[in-house]
Amino acid sequence: MRINKYLADQKISTRRGADELIKEKKVFINGKLAELGSQVSEGDKVEVRDAKPKEYKYFAYNKPVDVITHSPQGEEKDIKETIKNSLIPKDVFPIGRLDKNSHGLIILTNDGRITDQLLNPKYIHEKEYVVRTSNKLRSSFKQKMEAGVKIEDYVTKKCKVKIVDEFTFRVILTEGKKHQIRRMCSALFQEIADLKRERVMNIKLGNLKPNGFREIKGAELATFLNQVFHQS
Predict the structure, then answer these.
(1) Which contacts of 89-96 are long-range, i.e. CB under 8 A and separated by 24 or more positions?
(2) Using one digit for the tens of pLDDT, what is the confidence trace for 173-199?
């Protein structure tokens, strides 16, 4: 196994961060200075010396409608631009996406270790949304959504749906295909008027106002990280 992958698997650093530690001559394998691309075998002793532990930060952020998560075009504003004058550290980035017309909870962090665990479809983590439609929900909507919906050549995983009223429902997903809820609703002839994400795992949007944020810490953070790193 390559040394940068080993350090990433041990949650010591991201692969990119591990490469930086190696360049700074802070990584040793069996007492010898590691090089970029060095291999680690079972039984090898790996040490990271004189490395200042990175202070990881995590924030719950309420993304407004019309704010882009990543890669804005033209006059569009992304999250980085929107929060640049706030108290959030400059090195944080959003985990996952919400499309331009959707709003609600996005987790911001400078911890690259959790990106794959949260976004890779092989891991199961709940995300909860409230959706309002512009046409009345069909009587078979809940049953068909929960069973899985064919969107192009893919059938979505089973999900949980709670009907709030004839135009509103809550849905809990464990996957995150691009525009998944919009595509599922379209396949079932329902047009979305509003889509808000209210929860990612144990992190809830709560009373955060649009463009508002709060730091995730204490017991809430401990539960979140335990779920990220120890549940599949």
Answers:
(1) 89/57, 92/57, 92/59, 94/61, 94/69, 94/70, 95/119, 96/69, 96/176, 96/200
(2) 998 888 999 999 999 999 999 999 999
Per-residue pLDDT tens digits for 118-137? 887 778 899 999 999 999 99
At 201 the three-state DSSP class reads coil
**Residue spans of alpha helices (H) in the chain:** 3-9, 15-23, 79-83, 115-119, 141-147, 180-187, 218-230
**Contact (Cβ atoms closer than 8 angstroms) between residue 106 and residue 98:** yes
Mention every residue, 6+ apart, whose C-beta is less than 8 A from residue 80.
Answer: 93
Q: Is 111 a catalytic residue?
A: no
Q: What is the pLDDT of residue 120?
A: 78
Mean pLDDT of 143-166: 95
Residue pLDDT, tens place only, 55-99: 889 999 999 999 999 888 888 889 988 888 788 888 899 998 899
Residue 33 near residue 19 (C-beta atoms within 8 A): no
**pLDDT value at position 12?**
81
Domains and CATH numbers, the chain: 3-48 (3.10.290.10), 58-111+208-230 (3.30.70.580), 127-200 (3.30.70.1560)
Q: Select which of 99, 111, 116, 194 is catalytic.
A: 99
In whole angstroms, give the CA distance from residue 166 to residue 151: 24
